[in-house]
Sequence to fold (258 residues):
Amino acid sequence: MSGRRRLTQGAVALALAAFAAVPALSEIKSGTEFLSPDMRRQQADETRNPAFFWVEQGRELFSRKPTPDGQACVSCHADPQQSLRGAATHYPQVDAATAKLLNLEGRIEQCRVERQGQPAFGYESPELLAMTAYLGSLSRGLPVEVKTDGAARPYYEAGKAFFERRQGQLNLSCQQCHDGLVGQKLRGDTVSHGAGTGYPAYRLEWNDVGSLHRRLRACSLGVRATQFDYGSPEYLALELYLAGRAKGLPVETPGMRR
Ligand code: HEC
Ligand code: HEC
Fold:
C-alpha cells in the first residue's frame, strides 16, 4: 500500500479533477487486472475459488428434472459444454419475441417458466445464481460479443446515459469512478473499469456469490443514490452498456472479489 494514494470519500472530488481523462475503449481492462496477485491466483484455481461450488450446483440443477415426468434443462440442451458454450457472451440481448432486453438470468428464467413450466427461480436465489454461474463458466475465455446496434441501440444509449449521469448525495457518475479513478485506491479496493465480466462472482465482503446487479446496487449505495431492483430496466441497460465497453474481453465467470 505504501506510496499509493489512499482515497477517502471526501477526497474523491479532488482526485477527479486530476484524472478527468476518459480512456479509449480499447484500454478497458477486466476486473481481474486490478486484483492482488494472490486473489488472482485464487480466482483461477477451481479448488480455491469458492464460486466453483455454485458452478457445480448449477451443473447438477441443469440435469435435474423439476418433477418426475418434467423435462430437465439438459433434455432440450444436450451436451451443454458444446451447445451452450459461448451463449453467455451474447447477453444482454433483445428478445425477438418480446422486444425486451434480457440478460442471462432473464433468459434462464424464461426457459424455466415457459419451457419447463415451473415457477421462476427468482433473482438472487441460490438456484438462479448457480445456474447463471454454471452457464457463464461454459463461456470462460471467450470474448464478450454483445450487440449494441439495431434493436439494442436504445437500451445501449440508455445505459450510457445512466453511466454518465451524476447521482446520489455524493453527486458522482459511474464514469467519474470507473474511467476517472481507475487504478486508484478507494476503501481498500483498486478502482477498475467496471467491466462486469466475472459475474456472478464470489465476494469476500458478501461471503457469498452475487450477481452483477448486486454489485451495481452496492455502487449505487456507495454514492447514496437510488438502488434499483434486481433485473430492473435501469440495471439491464447499464449491464448492456458495460458489456459493450467490455467487448472483446474474455468472460471470467465465476470471478472472485474482495
Ligand atoms: C422444452 C425444451 C427446453 C427446456 C426444458 C429448456 N430450454 Fe432453454 N431453450 C430452449 C429453446 C427452444 C431455446 C431457444 C433456442 C434458440 O433459438 O436460441 C432455448 C434457449 C435457451 C438459452 C439461450 C441460448 C442462447 O444461445 O442464447 C439458455 C441460456 C437456456 N435456454 C437455458 C435453459 C435452462 C437453464 C433451462 C432449465 C432451467 C432450459 N433452458 C430449459 C428449449 C428449452
Ligand atoms: C465512488 C466511486 C464509484 C462510483 C461512483 C461507482 N463505483 Fe462501481 N465500483 C467502485 C469500486 C471501488 C469498486 C470495487 C473495485 C472495482 O472492481 O472497481 C466498484 C466495482 C464495480 C463493478 C465490479 C467490477 C468487477 O470486476 O468486480 C462494476 C461492474 C461497477 N462498479 C459498476 C458501476 C456502475 C455501473 C456505477 C454507476 C451506477 C458505479 N459502479 C459507480 C467505485 C465506484
